[in-house]
Known about the structure:
elongated
Amino acid sequence: MRxxxxxxxxxxxxxxxAVPLIxxxxxxxxxxxxxxxxxxxxxxxxxxxxxxxxxxxxxxxPLIWSTxxxxxxxxxxxxxxxxxIVLGGLGRVRSWRRLGRPQPMMxxxxxxxxxxVPGLLIWHTRLVRQHQHDVSNRG
Length: 139
């Protein structure tokens, strides 16, 4: 495996993972009022759920970062977290279709979840397979 391509994938993943870290922290502190254009009052349960899910987003970053040093050996964690993010993006699309276009920040998040994450997972899978091929050819 080319070490420079693995390093590039790790760097891109590390940078992109700052998005859920920052968004999660901001959501815990600021609550639903952070969603641009949504300044009205929300039910206590909605506020509670928003802040809880923000904490889940926050936890994604260290989980993914912990896999990066050994990304070619432990693909399952990144794949599972990535699949969850893609499912979340599909949930956003369902909401969009049922309730109308969200604010640009949410539409951008859906794009990252439905295009960026799958692209990253495809890249990661190719590198893992290449690594496995290289290892099997050594022995």
